[in-house]
Amino acid sequence: MIRHLTLCALMLAGTGVLACEEKPAVPADAPKVERLKSDQWCWTHDLPKDKCTSCDRKLIPALKKEKDWCGEHAVAESLCVKCDPKSKERIDALRPADKPKDAK
Ligand SMILES: [Zn+2]
Ligand SMILES: [Zn+2]
Description:
mainly alpha, 3 helices
């Protein structure tokens, strides 16, 4: 009887291990940033369209209001590579992977 119980416990333990291994491996430090679609990207200035003040000057007051404006370099502060070299990584992470053929 005791022998039978031990066997059951071992089987349960085995199942538990298997269940753990079947979980999909999700890296904890996976980047959460989603790439933009190619029609959301300004390929001329290599910036998200909604931050490209070279194309749309009207974006400037909105960015200033959001305190996301670099007056020195006239770009969105969060994307100002001159102020923060790491901004380039942010831009690279957002840039759509599929560049349209007609884009410059
Ligand atoms: Zn632009
Ligand atoms: Zn700047």
